[in-house]
Every structure is written in C-alpha cells, then in structure tokens.
C-alpha cells in the first residue's frame, strides 16, 4: 500500500488576511492536499479550499497554545509527506518573506521529497495598498525597504538605522514592540516630520489605522490602542494616499498656526 504513496510538499502563501487574496494556484494546491499544516492564519476560511477528508494540523504560534519548534514542524512536514503523500504547508503572507519557508523546503529536499512553492501576496505590499499607500511613487519614492522589526535574537534589525538614512519608503513588520527605538533612530537622522502609518490587522474587517509623523506616532498608537499584528510604513508616500491627504493638510496647517 505504502509503495503507491507519492510524497510531495507544496509551500503555499496564504496572503495577508483577506481570504480573496489567496492565489488561484494556492486554491488548486489546497484542493489536492492530503494533509495541510497551517499557521495561525489571519483568516481560516482559506482552509475551506482543502478537501474535507484532508488531515488539518495547526502548527502555528499562538499565546497559550502548544508551540511547535521549527525543527518539529520540519519533521512533521516530512513524516506526513512520507505517510500520506501530498502535503500543503500553508503560511501567512508569502512563505519566503520572514516565513522560514526556505528552511522547510531544504529539510524536505534532504529526504528527496519533491517540493514546490506557491508565492503569496505579502502583507508588506498589500496592507499599505489597501490604504492607498503606494510604496513607490514617481518623484516621491524610488525604492522601499522591507525589514523585520524583531530579529531571531529578539533585537531590532541593524538595517532600520541604515534605512532611516535613505530616502526610501520603509516598511517594518513585527516592529510594534520596538516602536520607540524605531522612532529615535529616525529622529537621529532629523526625520521627525516624516509621515508614518501604522496598520493593524490589515486587509481584514478588524483593521485599525493610525497616522501621524515620526514625532507624534507613539501618542497616536496610545490614543488608538494600536498593537500587534501591525505594519509600520514610514515615508513621504504615506501622505500621498488619498485617504490621508486631508489629515496631513490639517496637521501642517495646525503646525503653522
């Protein structure tokens, strides 16, 4: 019986939260899954694309729940592929953007298991887009940085200090606990007046947004009770969004008064 099993692992990016932002290729991969290993997805509706008969294992990190280590997840992927065949590893956003997807692929390949990757729409791009923030804009921003706020050793990435020196749009994921450090790095570069937006639970009905400048954003966060998971967008493009233009025009007028 087991000789007929064809092990296969497909890493699928589930997108940033809106279930309609899953790709068609992702839907097709899920429809063929024998096993789905999934993270704490922003929207579990996505799981409806998997067959009812598929084994569904939650392996994400949730406070108060059993946390699988990355090594355990790697082993589960391989064990399930060898036992049941077609495994879909479903990860929020894009599996290769701070998702440790490459480690999972490398581990499966070390057992000779064929692997495939279905890219996902990253929250780094989609969440600002839903607020009308264009990360690049002619005459305003020529590039953007996407940085993790918290590195594997729980520190703020050194790249934030470098990004603060550039004219690029800066997108920081998982950075809310480091907001005061981020603010001081930008203030050090005389960027206190730079527009900044913080978007919590982006692309979902629970979305909350706060906008201001590097100097005011901590007060905005406190007033709006913003917390993780949120994306921090820093740069002139924030005030170019039609949603926030009015706020910044009033803000500048009140500064002049």
Give a quick set of tags describing it:
elongated, alpha/beta, 32% helix, 257 residues, 9 helices, 5-stranded parallel β-sheet
Based on CA atoms alone, the radius of gyration comes out at 20 Å
Helix/strand structural class: alpha/beta
How much is the average pLDDT?
A: 94
Report the end-to-end length measured between terminal Cα atoms.
Answer: 79 Å
Spatial order of strands in the largest sheet: 3-2-4-1-5
Low-confidence stretches: none
**What is the H/E order?**
EHEEHEHEHEHEHEEHEHH
Description:
The protein has 257 residues and is an alpha/beta fold. The protein is built from nine helices and ten strands. A five-stranded parallel β-sheet has the order 3-2-4-1-5, with helices on both faces. A five-stranded mixed β-sheet has the order 6-7-10-8-9, with helices on both faces. The longest helix is centred in the first third of the chain and has 15 residues, at 70-84.
Layout of helices and strands:
Elements (H helix, E strand, L loop, with lengths): L7 E6 L10 H8 L3 E4 L16 E4 L11 H15 L1 E6 L9 H9 L5 E4 L4 H8 L13 E5 L10 H7 L3 E5 L5 H10 L6 E6 L7 E6 L3 H8 L5 E5 L2 H4 L4 H12 L1
Parallel strand pairs: 1-4, 1-5, 2-3, 2-4, 6-7
Antiparallel strand pairs: 7-10, 8-9, 8-10
Helix pairs in contact: 2-3
Summarize the structure.
This protein is α/β, with parallel strands linked by helices and 257 residues long. The protein has helices spanning 24-31, 70-84, 101-109, 123-130, 159-165, 179-188, 217-224, 237-240, 245-256, and strands at 8-13, 35-38, 55-58, 86-91, 115-118, 144-148, 169-173, 195-200, 208-213, 230-234.
């Amino acid at each position: 019986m087991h000789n007929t099993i064809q092990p296969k692992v497909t890493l699928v990016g589930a997108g940033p939260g809106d279930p309609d932002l899953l790709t068609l290729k992702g839907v097709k991969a899920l429809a063929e899954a024998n096993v789905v290993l999934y993270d704490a997805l922003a929207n579990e509706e996505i799981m409806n694309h998997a067959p009812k008969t598929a084994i569904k294992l939650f392996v994400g990190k949730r406070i108060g729940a059993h946390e699988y280590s990355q090594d355990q997840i790697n082993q589960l992927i391989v064990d399930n592929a060898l036992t049941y065949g077609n495994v879909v590893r479903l990860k929020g956003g894009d599996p290769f953007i701070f998702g440790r997807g490459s480690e999972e692929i490398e581990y499966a390949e070390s057992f000779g298991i064929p692997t495939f990757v279905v890219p996902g729409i990253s929250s780094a791009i989609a969440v600002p887009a839903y607020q009308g923030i264009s990360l690049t804009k002619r005459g305003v921003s020529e590039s953007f940085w996407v940085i993790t706020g918290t590195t594997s050793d729980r520190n703020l990435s050194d790249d934030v200090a470098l990004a603060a020196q550039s004219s690029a749009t800066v997108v920081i994921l998982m950075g809310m606990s480091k907001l005061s450090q981020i603010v001081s790095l930008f203030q050090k570069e005389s960027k206190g007046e730079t527009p900044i937006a913080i978007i919590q639970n982006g692309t979902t009905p629970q979305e909350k947004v706060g906008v201001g400048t590097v100097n005011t954003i901590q007060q905005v966060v406190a007033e709006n009770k913003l917390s993780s998971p949120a994306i921090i967008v820093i740069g002139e493009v924030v005030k170019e969004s039609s949603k926030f233009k009015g706020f910044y025009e009033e803000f500048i007028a009140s500064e002049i008064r």
